[in-house]
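job 3f2a | input accepted
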Amino acid sequence: MMKTLLLASMCLVVAACTPMGSLVPSRGDAFRERLIAPQDLAKLPRLPTRVRPGDTLRIVRDAQDSVSLDLRNLVEDSQSQTYVVRPDGSISYRFAGRVEAAGKTPDEVAQELRAKLDAYYREPGVTVNIIASPSNQVVVAGAVRNPLPVSLTALVSLEQAIFAAGGLLPSADPTAVALLRMDEQDRYQVYFVDLSKMLEPTAEGRTTLAFQRGDIVFVPKSRAGTAADGVDVYINQLLPFTRSLGIGFTKSIGTTNTTTTLRPD
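job 3f2a | predicted structure (265 res):
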């Protein structure tokens, strides 16, 4: 009875330590429809850059004749200023009040500011630029040596993103590297690319991919790599557990009696 309980406990430990699953893409019709050639990466749809909460904006208002402001205010107001977009997506600008900025392009924010300042200035000129953003990065994850977020300005191609993360692990599946990209409705669309031959030279060269904010590069594990993980978990986690618990099985020679012993280490 004791032996049965211990064996059952060990099976539960194996089930608990073994990964329940991994992100392995299905190779069905949906996968084949979204599988694109490396040279076609540059043809993926690009969205205009939009303001997001946490972005830092530089707003420059050109000095114009004022209807109701004195010269001192006119000079002060013509200088560039920076504003951090609040978590609710808004900013507060002098004489314009609350402005909803998130989800709009910098040009759209500038157009709204010009409309609100029209009562104070003649032909107010406003320029808006994003100078810093916490989301201005590409996340590289999955079966790479060093998963990390990489600054968008430091990347040029999908291959460069993978190399920046230390390269592929032996368990990686380079034939189904996923690129997750947001669409107009802020929903991620998934594309797959086969990078198994990315180190092979081609006569026409390779077209670089223009990343955009929020992109995620995910390298899945191969099925063999997933199976190897299960073996690794068994060796590195289950066996040390049984050694520390001190479980042993002994059988008397010439008899049918089997004894289970617990030995504290």
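job 3f2a | The mean pLDDT is 75.
job 3f2a | closed
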